Amino acid sequence: MENCFHCGDECRATPIIHYYKHFCCNGCKTVFDIINENELSYYYELEGTPGSTPYIQEGKFDFLGNKQIASQFLEFDELDTQIVSLQIPTIHCSSCIWVLENLDKLNPAIRASQVNFPEKTVRITFSSKETTLQKLVILLAKIGYEPYMSLDDASIKKKPNINKGLIYKLGVAGFAFGNIMFLSFPEYFEVNEFWLERFKHTFRWLAFVFAIPVVVYSARDYFLSAYKGLRSGILNMDVPIAIGISVLFVRSTVEIAMGLGTGFLDSMAGLVFFLLLGKFFQQKTYAFLSFERDYRSYFPIAVTRLVKKGIATTEEQTQVYELEKGDRILIRNSELLPVDATLINGKALIDYSFVTGEAEPITKKSGDQLFAGGRQQAGAIEVEVLKPVKQSYLTQLWSNEIFDKNNQSLFESLTDRISKRFTLSILSIAMIATTIWLFIDSSKALNVFTAVLIVACPCAIALAAPFTLGNLLRIFGYHKLYMKDSVSIERLARVDTVVFDKTGTLTTSTKNTIAYEGVILTKEEKSMLTNTLRASNHPLSRSLYATLDNNDIKTLDDFKEDVGQGITGTINNHKIKIGSYGYTDSNQKRRERQTRNKTAIHISTDDEYKGYYIFFNDYRNGVKEVFDKLGKNHKIIILSGDNDGEKDYLKTLLPENATLLFNQRPEDKLNYIKEQQEQGKNVLMIGDGLNDAGALAQSNVGISISENVNVFSPACDGILDASRFKDITRFLSLSKKGIKVIEHAFVFSLFYNMVGLLFAITGNLEPVVAAILMPLSSISIVVFTTMATFFLGRELKNETAPS
Amino acid sequence: MNIIYMLLAISVFVALIFFAAFILSVKKGQYDDTYTPSVRMLFEDEIVKEKDTKSIHKATKEPIIPK
After folding, report:
1. Does B63 reside within a domain?
2. Considering only Cβ atoms within 10 Å of each terminal Cβ, which end of chain B, N or C, has fewer?
3. Distance in Å, alpha carbon of A36 to nearest chain B alpha carbon
4. Percentage helix, strand, coil, to 5, in chain A?
5. What is the pTM of this model?
6. How confident is the model at residue A273 (pLDDT cuts 50, 70, 90)?
7. Is residue B24 less than 8 Å (CB to CB) from chain A?
8. Distance from A94 to chain B by nearest Cα, in Å?
9. 3-state DSSP assignment of residue A25
């Protein structure tokens, strides 16, 4: 079997041979032609089979013809210079970068284009006098780089990058740390040398100047957080840190001003620097993913509205939010219906699998009500709007309070729990030590008090969690579970109940297992079947065709496709009909019952009914193993929006104590999880569609499963690549082990604090000791957590090396 | 030994220059995308080559694809 020169997919039985190259389809061949004719063939030199099959949906970008909509995407728009940033999910290799940065060869109106690979975006500067945004986008779609366009995402993009603040703070702290260290170094050796005596005051004051921005600017967040924590009565980890930093700074200032010593400014700057480093490491952002999407990014931006002017009806592109009750809109094949509406004209076959979880498309007749979120599967339909977008049945879900409140603040992390006890014990140790010293030598009491607070500053403890979780975040990401932040990993470790959605989560979106029932087909009939299927582009025809033997290719005398119904082929005066039950056999009603709730292709030859092929939903690889492993120490629940047609089969996969619920509406799922949480359960929700959005938001951790992580997935805490479904148990156990690592690191750093406290309590804390002990404890914690997480991460690597 | 004051001033000044350079580079977005430039610099600079082959391409209609 040859592989396509353009996209690398396997060519089917009949590859297209063009310029001695094999192509899997006409789409790929067309892209090759465009690229080749424009002297861009270096594209194929850079990497083998770099392309993606273009999928052009007629009229998909018509909305860009509306100038008002198009201008909302432009970053810059003046005279004849326009700049647009487009997100292109198919960017994946260096060839992609190259061809997208040479777009000017395809369209001279393009002045410049620059790719940002990690974000999968291309920023294009073009002239609106010579081309339009619509033409630009269509050109990209034609060569297999179709942009993902949604108004919601476009508005998010324009927000300034918030991460830069941390980089500046880190820069300031690092700069000051280095310079203060350099200025304090001569005094570490405590030689009462003449020249040092003369210059040490200059050195100290210079170090003091460097320390000011560290306290005022770099450490600002710790003071703010400690203040907020204290005001709401929580002793968080930032309280001892803030105390430590301020004591360090005040004591050093006093020592320098009174000429008593060098102070601990070097330790202070180092402390802030390491803490910020931990914070920086903890954030791992997947720039190309979005964890905050709601229905707004799933819905189309605009639809075709039919406007009656006198007798003539004109089409116009309207933003979906401007649609009002009573408007007539046109929904083409494979377009999404954005509003609740009544069907006026045409045959509707609506696929609701993403919004309700029902696996089978539903046929609707004129006058029936259609709900927002369904995808039309058969020809164009005309509908009348019943309710505006925001009031539709589906979008009502987003008015639930769960989408407003930020439940992250309610979570008490491991560090928070420890910090309470830690802060209290440090304060009491400081008090006791000071009281004792008041009796022994009252002049040293204040010294001891501050020394305890300085040495106890929980630098190492504060670093343990960020580095462990930050590392796990990266390891998870490498194995295709993209978590939103490190807090989600900690929450994942506490999960005891796992809720699964069925359609799209446990099952794949492709239907593959096929069985035939009915009268056995003769050799001629089989040949007619395969040859007729060959001519059809319907996904079901393609799936069925792929499973049949086809060694007898004939040309059809006649071929007819009735959209949404079926196909008819004629060879040598024999007719074969393939399609829905009503299409192939209009006389009987008997067999229809057997195939209800199932996807089936019926066949009749010469108007005689023969039988049907049934398509089964394919369950993902390893569903049973995942259930078996999870069932040991988690409760498993299945919440499906679909009917209970597969209940019996599912029961054989599940452990006995599992709960199965069918016909669940989106609100039901949300409320069910709420109930579980009220019983004290920590719930992990694994879902995929819009109907799971409420449940994903309500659950302690919501993971959305996706065949292609670049396409839409509802707001969640993590996105899991579907190919890694069977690793769910490993991810769960790894997060639990990660928490263990943090606990060990705490014990480890407490030991350092003990050693430091010994120096402090005995009144012997010299700046040198602090300057050695603090970085040493921080660095050893960083090394320990990093090594431990990488060791644990190997578990994931060994058994399932990423392809 | 008063030269030390001058040396200190110079060293702080040099350090500040590098610090300012760092801040400026962050501000200008040099760290926004740390991957793409590393790929981009490896691309063949084929502006000259393109001019030569252009006429041949059009004349023969034969694709120039290696391997």
Report:
1. no
2. C
3. 6
4. 50, 20, 30
5. 0.78
6. very high
7. no
8. 7
9. coil
Which residues of A are less than 8 Å from B66 in CB distance? 45
Q: What is the ipTM for the molecules in this complex? A: 0.72
Q: What is the average pLDDT value for chain A, to the nearest integer?
A: 81
With CB atoms and an 8 Å threshold, state whether A39 touches B57. Answer: yes
- The nearest alpha carbon in chain A to B14 belongs to A179
Domain limits for position B21? 3-57
- Give the chain A residue nearest B63 (alpha carbons): A36
Distance from CA of A178 to the nearest CA of B (A): 10
Q: Which residue has the tokens 């391997």?
A: B67
DSSP secondary structure letter of residue A215: I
Burial letters for A208-217: b for 16+ Cβ neighbours within 10 Å, e otherwise?
Answer: bebbebbbeb
Domain tally for chain B?
Answer: 1
pLDDT at A401: 67
B64 touches chain A (CB under 8 A): yes
- Residue A711 pLDDT grade (very low, low, confident, very high; cuts 50, 70, 90): low
Contacts of B46 in chain A (CB under 8 A): 42
Condensed to tens digits (0 to 9), the pLDDT of residues A588-620 reads 555 555 555 566 788 888 878 888 887 777 788
Say if the Cβ atoms of A42 and B44 lie within 8 Å. Answer: yes
Measured in angstroms, the CA of A41 and the nearest CA of chain B are apart by 6
CA distance A288 to A153: 11
Instruction: State pLDDT tens for residues A384-431.
Output: 888 888 787 777 777 776 666 555 455 677 777 788 888 888 888 888
The whole-angstrom distance between B20's CA and the closest CA on chain A is: 10
CA separation, residue A455 to residues A160, A419, A428, A761 (Å) = 39, 15, 14, 10
Residue of B24, B43, B48 for testing the chain A interface, max A β-carbons within 10 Å: B43
Please answer whether residues A204 and A227 qualify as being in contact, where contact means their C-beta atoms are separated by less than 8 angstroms. no
Residues of A in contact with B23 (CB under 8 A): 168, 171
Q: In chain B, which residues have their Cβ closer than 8 Å to the Cβ of A206?
A: 8, 12
Alpha-carbon torsion A440, A442, A444, A450, what sign?
A: positive
In this structure, are residues A513 and A618 in contact, taking their beta carbons and an 8 Å threshold? yes
Mean pLDDT confidence for A647-674: 84
Residue A752 is encoded by which pair of tokens? 């350092």
Give how far A119 is from chain B: nearest CA, Å: 8
Q: Kindly state the average pLDDT of the residues B3-31.
A: 89
Q: What is the DSSP string of A393-407?
A: TTGGGGGSGGGTS-G
Q: Is residue B49 in a domain?
A: yes
CA distance A347 to A326: 20
Instruction: Give a yes or no: residue B41 inside a domain.
Output: yes
Q: Is the pLDDT of residue A513 over 70?
A: no
* pLDDT score recorded for residue A510: 63
Contact B26 A171 (CB under 8 A): yes
Give the mean pLDDT of A742-746: 88
Residue B51 lies in a domain: yes
Asked whether the beta carbons of A347 and A381 are under 8 A apart, the reply is yes
Token pair in block for residue A633: 């120490």
Q: Using a CB-CB distance cutoff of 8 angstroms, which residues of chain A are in contact with residue B1?
A: 195, 198
**Residues contacting A335, CB < 8 A, separation 6+:** A57, A60, A300, A303, A375, A376
pLDDT score for B50: 47
Which residue in the set A41, A101, A116 is minimally distant from B64, CB to CB? A41
Mark yes or no for CB contact B64/A167 under 8 Å: no
pLDDT in tens, A199-215: 888 888 999 999 999 99
Q: How far apart are CA A371 and CA A385, in angstroms?
A: 10
Residues of B whose CB is below 8 A from A114: 36
Which class for A29: exposed (0-12), middle (13-18), buried (19 or more C-beta within 10 A)? Answer: buried
d(CA A687, CA A697) in angstroms, rounded, equals 11
Nearest chain A residue to B59 by CA: give it: A37
